[in-house]
Amino acid sequence: MKNLKTTLxxxxxxxxxxxxxxxxxxxxxxxxxxxxxGILAISTNGTDFVQSRANKGEIQHxxxxxxxxxxxxxxxxxxxxxxxxxxxxxxxxYVFFMRRKEQ
Length: 103
Known about the structure:
By secondary structure, the protein is an alpha+beta fold. Strands 3-2-1-5-4 form a five-stranded antiparallel β-sheet, with helices on one face. The chain has a single domain (24-101), classed as Gtp Cyclohydrolase I Feedback Regulatory Protein, Chain: K. It contains two helices and five strands; from the N terminus they run αβββαββ.
């Protein structure tokens, strides 16, 4: 009985180690956009940060996220995958989470 428990524990440990080693690594990008302020911010892997402001007249409405969607489309063509989106409480700030396999 003791050998069976030891064997099962060894298989469980081996399976856990293999599962951890098989996990894929990703690079991440977070795009944040506020149509109210016109600010588009892009953070890549927590190391690079770029911020820009839309010109007057580019944003048609508080719900116009065209600037952010253009950036999302550009990054998708570069191999990034959109995997989540969100908004922040009441301030019309939109967040797009993207990733791609580590290169």
